[in-house]
Amino acid sequence: MGILNSLFGNGISETLQEQITQKLKACTDPISKQSLEALKAISELQLKKGTLTLKISMPYPCKSLWPSIEQSVQHEILQIEEIEKVNISFETKVVSHDAQKGVSPLPNIKNIIAIASGKGGVGKSTTSVNLALALQQEGANVGLLDADIYGPSIPTMLNIKEKPQSIDGKSMQPLPAYGLQVMSIGALIEEDSPMIWRGPIVTQTLTQLLKETNWDDLDYLVIDLPPGTGDVQLTLSQQIPVTGAVIVTTPQQVSLIDAKKGLKMFEKVEIPVLGIIENMSTHICSNCGHEEAIFGAHGGENMAKEYKVDFLGALPLDKRIREEADNGKPTVTAEPLSEIAQKYRHMAHKISAQIGIQKRNYANVFPNIVIQNT
Fold first, then answer.
1. Helices marked H in the chain
2. What DSSP line would sit under 170-207, residue for residue?
3. What Rg value do the Cα atoms of the chain yield, rounded?
4. Can you spell out the DSSP letters for 145-159?
5. Could you give the angle at which helices 253-268 and 299-307 cross, rounded to 10 degrees?
6. What's the sign of the alpha-carbon dihedral 331, 277, 131, 42?
7. How far apart are CA 258 and CA 255, in angstroms?
8. First and final C-alpha spacing in the chain
């Protein structure tokens, strides 16, 4: 019976235990398509006077999916004759998962998601912000690091005006924005100041922004990378424990060529590619609503098939996405019930669910052992 076996009390017969187990195996998570039993999501189970009480601990943030999961469990369990009622409670329980070999986990950060693109101008930063907000809305504690040192746009998109504060003079407090913990070089400099820096200074700055920010118990840190496959990406792969990467592209060939280079780079440094997002997939006319694939069709989807990675979805070229980001209130927050927000949310589900079924990293579970001469 696997993990469930330890949850059953002495008062439940083996026959009834088997029935409950089989019913829970029939209840699948709609995103990962795995059963609750396979996900080890049942953390508490009690049967008393015909009432079965369950606690479901989902390994990724998916609050909006809880009602459908509850319906599925209720439907299956109430088919058992001895059970008259089912009480279900939910929680989000994100743990730390494996990153690339030879890189130690960072304190207070369970998982790092890198959002990358081969080419600039494909909407990577807008996608990063909306994915981070979607993860936060779905129940995770989320940070957002703007690693695009030359073109930091996150402060504008999140309407961040203040500069980060330091309590001890050595580290910085992350900036709050819509429930996110945010850090960006754009919050430390004037808006029109150019970053005329060479590669080593840029990578050192990225490392400082990451390691000298007092992140508070993050389930996910989303890193918005600069475009390309240069110094920042190399530093990321060699020094920072990345759980997985997401590639953002547009459908046309000139964008896909560079996106493929980015994907191959992550493969070489053994960072899992969680999937591909096709941005600006179609243009929607604001006057008549006509939808047209002006940049070509199915480029990102075909690339995902070619490299055998998940196609996370396609986003339209819609002026609302641009307007809302420019106004400092991204789509997921400005229009949470819109079709576009639902697309971002579904992508966030798919990304975090993939991480949730990866091998767990136990490095932060065990205490550090220090031997001292006394």
1. 14-25, 66-77, 124-137, 154-157, 199-211, 231-239, 253-268, 299-307, 319-326, 331-334, 339-356
2. SSBPPEEETTEEEEEGGGTS-TT------HHHHHHHHH
3. 23
4. EE--SSS--HHHHTT
5. 30
6. positive
7. 6
8. 49
Q: Which residue has the tokens 């243009």?
A: 283
Is the whole-model pTM more than 0.70?
Answer: yes
Q: How many CB atoms lie within 10 A of CB 49?
A: 6
- Taking each helix axis from N to C end, the angle separating 14-25 and 66-77, rounded to the nearest 10 degrees, works out to 140
Write the DSSP string, 87-117. EEEEEE----B--STT-PPPTTEEEEEEEE-
In whole angstroms, give the CA distance from residue 242 to residue 102: 11
Q: How far apart are CA 20 and CA 140, in angstroms?
A: 30
pLDDT tens, position by position, 210-255: 999 999 999 999 999 888 767 777 777 778 899 999 999 999 888 8
Distance of CA 145 to the CA centre of its chain: 13
| Helix, coil or strand: residue 221 | strand
Asked if 290 and 284 count as a contact pair (C-beta separation under 8 A), the reply is yes
Nearest-angstrom CA–CA distance, 219 and 67: 23
Q: How many CB atoms lie within 10 A of CB 39?
A: 21
pLDDT in tens, the chain (374 residues): 445 655 665 567 888 889 999 999 999 999 999 999 899 999 999 888 889 999 999 999 999 999 999 999 999 999 998 999 999 999 999 999 888 887 888 999 999 999 998 778 888 999 999 999 999 999 999 999 998 877 788 999 999 988 888 888 788 999 999 999 999 987 776 665 655 556 677 778 788 889 999 999 999 999 998 887 677 777 777 788 999 999 999 998 888 998 998 899 898 888 999 999 999 888 877 788 787 888 878 889 999 999 999 999 999 988 889 999 999 999 999 999 999 999 999 999 999 999 998 866 655 544 444 444 44
Collapsing DSSP to helix, strand or coil, 30 comes out as: coil
